[in-house]
Design a protein that fits this description.
The chain is an alpha/beta fold. The protein has 10 helices and 13 strands.
Amino acid sequence: MVTGGAGYIGSVVASQLLAAGHEVTVLDDLSTGHEDAVPAGARFVRARVSEASPTLAGKSYDGVLHFAAKSLVAESVARPELYWRNNVVESLALIEAVRAHGVPRFVFSSTAAVYGEPDVATIDEQTPAVPINAYGQSKLAVDFMLGAAARAHGLAVVSLRYFNVGGAMGDLGERHKVETHLIPNVLVVATGSRATVSVFGTDFPTPDGSAVRDYLHVVDLGTAHLLALDAARAGTHSIYNLGSGTGYSVNEVIEACRSVTGHRIPSLPAARRQGDPARLVASNGRIGAQLGWSPEAGLLDIVADAWAFMKGRQS
């Protein structure tokens, strides 16, 4: 079962699971997902995460990959109760359903937001998790619940903490109602739908003054989920960072978008956003050493695939 499998990342992973020979059920309430993103060959159940139990009872599932969640940081600050209800309470109901129906493996879509604003060059899994908003806090709470379920009940759990995800896989890409990610917000300027892109902060202690982030192709991210599913072990909760291990500044991302699209993409300086760290870059050494995973796509690949998807949606 793939919860949130009508969303951006969930739909890509559901497609990869089908290609690997798995039978896949997508469970999604379509509050932010799109039914036409559910890959052909997957069974689709429209329901909330807390309503998964009847579906899990219908056949013998050997794993759940849990993507469904609210994920807007600003909204989580303004309306934290939505994040406790949707991300924590709903996930608890799912964990209980998984236990009740004997599902042995659970892969959780977590986030680098659990680390907050660490003052380190690269973030590894030993970096203290000190989230600064309800989004990151809600994801960390689910991590704690899953760790307890692994120890107490023998559930095999892997949590994957994402850094910045981009790109597309064919006709599966980003279609968020509220778009907060940098790459699609830069590319939309190249479509002519927006005149400029804002660079929030030009005085960070970075080589060009703009904030530095780690970008990972969604296909590489999905590959890690399949490896995690295979590697999950009963009674163990494994945690892995998912990032490229390379940092790119906002200005470097904009330049990559200019290179791919051939558009000049005007940018304007803007004030820093509250709570924006200067640099967030992953160490992916643990998942490389333990699962043999390493990302294959670079920044230009991410931008090129995102651009192809965006143009395809316009045609």
